[in-house]
Amino acid sequence: MLTPGIELFGKTLGVIGFGRIGSYVASIANAFRMRVLGYDPFVDRERFIEVNAVRVESLDDLLRQSDFITIHTSLTRESKGLIGRREVGLMRDGVFIVNTARGGEVVDENAILEGLRSGKIAGYATDVLTGEPPTEESSPLLRAFKRREVTNLFVTSHIAGGVTRESVKRYTLYVVRGGVRDALMLLRR
Hints:
alpha/beta; 2 domains; Rossmann fold; 7 strands; 16% strand; 8 helices; 7-stranded parallel β-sheet
């Protein structure tokens, strides 16, 4: 029997990291009439207001209230291990998580894997893993994915979101028209 999906309408999206990408994701969530919570201690309140999001003061508050969580942080001393066993325990049962952070070590992969196996995490999609490049030894999630140990784990290449027919054509045109330097600057954005 085909299991029906779930609607985004009326659900709560928690955005961890409210820079350019995180705030853009928040504005898209508004189109689905989601309640958007944002956590980023380094971003001014005005940014949250601009995209109709509620700025929460603590990560714990965001984790407790969110049906969906999306992670958009850089890997820094403060963000390393940001999501571990304790944080997974605070999350709602059946939470969905998308991790496109700039570094796999933002999450404890063993904690995520435990959450997937127990059903605490209904689904986890990521394009970042532990290790550069990730291996089955450095990344428990990559090992579980390759061995098909869990069915609610989705792993893509870290460049998956930026490699489309349109983007390849656009980058090629930038190189032809403006030179390699301009194309590299575009890719760094």
